[in-house]
Specification:
- The structure is a homodimer of 234-residue chains.
- The first copy, chain A, is α/β, with parallel strands linked by helices.
- Chain A has one domain: Rossmann fold.
- The radius of gyration of chain A is 17 Å and the shape is globular.
- In chain A, the strands form two sheets. In chain A, strands 3-2-4-5-1-8-9 form a seven-stranded mixed β-sheet.
- Helices cover 25% and strands 21% of the residues of chain A.
- Chain A is built from seven helices and eleven strands.
- Chains A and B meet through helix 7 of A and helix 7 of B.
- Chains A, B: It is an enzyme of class 3 (hydrolase).
- Chains A, B: Its EC number is 3.4.13.21.
- Chains A, B: This is Peptidase E.
């Protein structure tokens, strides 16, 4: 596999995808065309608008970028794709569309066969075993929470440390993940904004310069440093 | 109906349920026993532990408090209950349990027949048409997102205004609700911590001293003041 699985598309003070520029030049170096999966529709924008945004964000690469929604047979398009990118937005909507368009398995097969893949936010969430650790609102009811399972664990993108000064009584991210582990066994990687997982050469390396926070069932959460391999986490 | 539908069980700097003391004395004045629904299991605590917490929080009332999980026939227990309280926690877990225990309809009937009902957080969320505007993590897959429909709209408990100083790129609550309205038509009431809806005498009044924020599809969100009736919101 050959993937960049990123916490976010955008970091504070920077343009869309800009912080990933060098990593994306390397990921996509051998391809001339990238198929963009716009199903997560951030803020409810249309598939066309979202594809346009991806085109602009990837313009520095000088590659063709096509929206998956434009293909008559999206499963076939994934199978013959040179490279892929799934953007963020709402994970419930993304997963519903992947099921409804019958492309979950073709997408998994394409990634497993080595097609370069970029996921950001919701597009990263779906690389885990389930979408059970998304932060998103359940705006639609998907046929299942099961996702690609490219990774042997789950992801929590946009991972946010508890704010010790907060007076808000809603659950912290850490509390939510603890609740997840009362009902589920797989580890969860809390991926902070600016981090990504580089899946390549049978390894999974934490990149981007930051620590990640690992949650395992019935254990205290712990930090791993930039450069750590997560390939044995399961 | 005779309900208190509260954003949160606890406000900053105060004990569990303490800010609702007077409202609960009035709600439960004619009953000697309250059945507590512990299914949402905040932080993954057990049904027994959670019921104990509810007992302690309601001790000032001097009423019996029994956990619904202790009844052999929970549907029958709801039907014959004098009063009800559903605590907060994880809405996905709560809704799954309501379906699995086949008590969603009996609970709705009990509330509609006038049984005094307190909901906090997840226990309030289920009073809306769907759980589609919960803030919780999808830790289990419920059979449906459809909930009690005691209200003709949806609720967003623990409503949180966007933080203009935040550098975090995850979606704000307002963005999430906007995404919800791309897929759903019903209004959403953003209920701030410290607010509750008093459902009584065929009216629904915002109480607790704060404004609430109302989101309607294809309209700008707007504020309503404490004391406003929401009975015509649909």
């Amino acid at each position: 596999m050959n993937c960049i699985i990123a916490s976010t598309s955008t970091v504070h003070g920077s343009n869309y995808l800009a912080y990933l520029k060098e990593a994306l030049e390397e990921l996509y170096k051998d391809v001339s065309e990238i198929i963009f999966i716009p199903y997560a529709r951030p803020g409810g924008i249309s598939h066309d608008e979202y594809t346009q945004k991806a085109k602009e964000g990837l313009a520095f690469l000088n590659k063709e970028v096509k929206g998956l929604h434009k293909f008559e047979d999206p499963a076939e398009a994934l199978q013959s794709a040179q490279a892929l990118f799934t953007g963020g937005g709402n994970t419930f909507l993304l997963v519903s569309q992947l099921y409804n368009q019958k492309v979950l398995t073709p997408l998994k097969k394409a990634i497993e066969s080595g097609t370069p893949y970029l996921g950001t936010s919701a597009g990263s969430n779906i690389c885990g075993l389930t979408m059970g650790t998304t932060n998103d609102m359940p705006i639609v009811y998907p046929p299942s929470f099961k996702t690609l399972g490219i990774l042997e664990f789950n992801l929590n993108p946009h991972y946010l440390d508890p704010d010790p000064t907060s007076t808000h009584k809603g659950e912290t991210r850490e509390t939510r993940i603890k609740e997840f582990h009362h009902m589920n066994a797989m580890p969860v990687v809390g991926l902070r904004e600016g981090s990504w997982l580089r899946v390549k050469n049978n390894d999974i390396i934490l990149e981007g310069g930051l620590n990640a926070r690992i949650f395992e069932k019935d254990e205290e959460p712990y930090e791993v440093e930039n450069g750590t391999s997560l390939k044995d986490l399961e």
